[in-house]
Amino acid sequence: MKIAQVVLDIPTQALDAPYTYLVAEEKNDDLEFDVAVGCVVLVPFGGRRACGFVVAIEEVSELDLAQRMDPSKLKHVIRALGPAYFDEEGAACAQYLSERYIAPLSACVRLFTPPGGIPRMVRSRDGHWRLEEPTVGEVDDRWITAGPAFGEFRPRKNAAKQIAILKALEAGDLRAVELSAEFGAVASTLKALEAKGAIAIERRRRFRGDAPRGNSFVPSVKPQLTEGQKAAVDAIAQARAAARGETVLIDGVTGSGKTEVYLQAIESVVEAGRTAIVLVPEISLTPQTVARFRGRFGDRVAVMHSRMSQGERYDQWDFIRSGEARVVVGARSALFTPLSNLGLIIIDEEHEGSYKQDSAPRYHARDVALWMVRRAGATLVLGSATPSIESLHAAVKDPLWRAVLLPERANGRPLPQITVIDMAKEFGQGSRSMFSRTLARALEEELAAGRKAVLMLNQRGFAKFVLCRACGFVPSCPHCSTSLTYHEQGAYLTCHHCGYRIPVPGACPECASPYLKKFGAGTQRVEADLRVLIDGFSSVTSEVPIIRMDADTTKGKNAHQDLLDRFASADAAVLLGTQMIAKGLDFDDVTLVGVINADTMLNLPDYRAAERTFDLVEQVAGRAGRAELPGRVMVQTYEADHAAIRAAARYDRALFLRDELPKRKALGYPPYVRMANVLIWGKDEKSVEGQAKALQRDLVRRVSEYGGSAWRVHDAVPCVLAKLRNTYRWHIVVKCPVDADIARVLLPLFRARKADPRVSVAVDVDPNDLL
Ligand SMILES: Nc1ncnc2c1ncn2[C@@H]1O[C@H](COP(=O)(O)OP(=O)(O)OP(=O)(O)O)[C@@H](O)[C@H]1O
Ligand SMILES: [Zn+2]
């Protein structure tokens, strides 16, 4: 007998194991899809029908089955709704994700399906369930080609459209949409021509968006590798030869040519008939990045990121499944595309927080990639100028890791000199500007010489808010526990979590004092002040464009790239932006980088705050002086003595770690412990608190029985963001030794937990932050 293990696509079946169904030996008719691993199937479930994903198929004897369960209770799969989306390996990965991250199996399986591309059951208003077809799928274009009678057919003299269409066809095949764009309604004309055999109409698969086929690309030349690059390429080759899932950490300064190392490593993987995945942070997935890979691998490159439409992603997904794509470049979800024969995974800027997903399954791309390469005997390459503390730690401790240093830039140029400017001193000396005199002077010199500057405003932890000078009142959101953010344009206050919005009050709502002070500065405000500053430079005669790059100006699909193109084509110009400009920019004539506020994130209640600050300063500094012209970097801060800033200014990671690691050890944070953050949330404050406290007791019991003496369950407390969109949030932090399997100990507790409609619970294993 054939049985299938099916993961139901029903949220309340959250952490449940798959259900067993029988698979009929004979299909109802030949046109149906086979019930196979990776299919979406329709099954009976509790008096209705449900969709589910097949994660295993087994052939068992009646006797064996009877020993496991009562066969008379088993129901049959009704039918498969489509072809397989993943294979046994994908099913195993989904299983791993669900256990490793204590996440619903259905959410893990869904990662492997094309977005919007699977059918599901929906409940209509009258309470009936019905099957909803996928919202996206393949698209076909109608193409017009010459028919068997093309040469002989003579249209009548007054059939102008027929004549024109046949004439146009002489130059080659045409799409129906192009014809109607040119000649207006053509449907009846085409039908008439087809009936006479003069033309044929056929459907051809079309790839949406910037898909690879037919897309032009400029082949790039391979440069002579530097010694460091050669060592890195060799290390990757050795790791591949060992075929035991090794990791190579490329610890290379900004501009050391890490991308060229990736390209050459991929080249030999592809030559050996295997495939590669390259993950880059979402924001740096620009056409420029993609062009570097297409320049080398042409139309064998597939691209996946969240700014693409569902249709575009579907087409790329399908292109990968066809086996023609050999290299996938994408954001973290590219790990789950149907790429077979994997030889290499590359994670660029591996320290980036965006590799961790912040909804279930809360996976980290690095950990999933590690699991994948170990299963496949493939190789993982991590690259960064500022590797995460976890990776640095693993590179020392783990025998399957090796590190390669690229301490110099590929072109032999020195790293730019970094100057720290103490803003407290500036203020003490009477300067009230947000630009220190040193930075202003440097900016004037560079702009007068016709060169470019990049200025970064660190917005993390940098809220713009309104404060009453008389009573100290700060307007806050009534639905979320955050102060309202001040927007200069339009003079309103808004909550960045829920969108709540009010005009700036004329007087303090608490004490009626009219003296409300606006604190902090957004990019718009900095832009206005910068304009005034630059216009006052006597030695700068031409108009200097300021290109502002922040969440507001980069909303559109190509906005990010358009802004960068404008910056590239200008003479003297300033690129002013948030953290998003810190990475990846490679412009020859940027000679000055300024950080307007380096320290705002140091005060966040986040154990990674210092590490993030160090990384950010190093990364943004790396944008300066990348070619012939030397660069300089000015870092403005109120905490000039902070180790993260002092160390970053000297490119001295050892100095930073000597300060940071003992703190992490003393306070019990990674890399010395592992953590799980248990989140409890709901609309009713009392029941959230009650459940949180009950869960804490359960956790304490569970951990004392199955954990060990080194484990710790912290008290259930409200989160830093205690209220979000009218939802109350509590959390419980669990810590254990680094080598302990935290998920294995906690998972049974959450599997056994009964779903409560009022209170939701989720576990974040190895959380990025505890906010
Ligand atoms: N072997 C080489 N010889 C000469 N130029 C090179 C070589 N390798 C790379 N380059 C050039 O050096 C520049 C920096 O390379 P790349 O962008 O790959 O560095 P990176 O290490 O990824 O930098 P970042 O971390 O700052 O993004 C690029 O313009 C690249 O074309
Ligand atoms: Zn709010």
From TrEMBL:
Entry superkingdom: Bacteria
InterPro entries the UniProt entry points to: DEAD/DEAH_box_helicase_dom, Helicase_ATP-bd, Helicase_C-like, P-loop_NTPase, PriA, PriA_3primeBD, PriA_3primeBD_sf, PriA_C
GO biological process, one term: DNA replication initiation
Enzyme category, top tier: isomerase
EC number: 5.6.2.4
An annotated GO cellular component: primosome complex
TM regions (residue ranges): none
Catalysed reactions, semicolon-separated: Couples ATP hydrolysis with the unwinding of duplex DNA by translocating in the 3'-5' direction; ATP + H2O = ADP + phosphate + H(+)
Record note on cofactor: Binds 2 zinc ions per subunit.
GO molecular function, one term: DNA binding
Amino acids binding Zn(2+) 2: C477, C480, C495, C498
Keywords, in A-Z order: ATP-binding, DNA replication, DNA-binding, Helicase, Hydrolase, Isomerase, Metal-binding, Nucleotide-binding, Primosome, Zinc
Domain annotation Helicase ATP-binding: ranges: 239-395
Requisite cofactors: Zn(2+)
Chain residues that bind Zn(2+) 1: C468, C471, C508, C511
Protein family according to the UniProt entry: Belongs to the helicase family. PriA subfamily.
NCBIfam families membership: priA
Subunit structure: Component of the replication restart primosome.
PANTHER family in the record: PRIMOSOMAL PROTEIN N
Function: Initiates the restart of stalled replication forks, which reloads the replicative helicase on sites other than the origin of replication. Recognizes and binds to abandoned replication forks and remodels them to uncover a helicase loading site. Promotes assembly of the primosome at these replication forks.
This protein's name: Replication restart protein PriA
Organism ancestry: Bacteria, Bacillati, Actinomycetota, Coriobacteriia, Eggerthellales
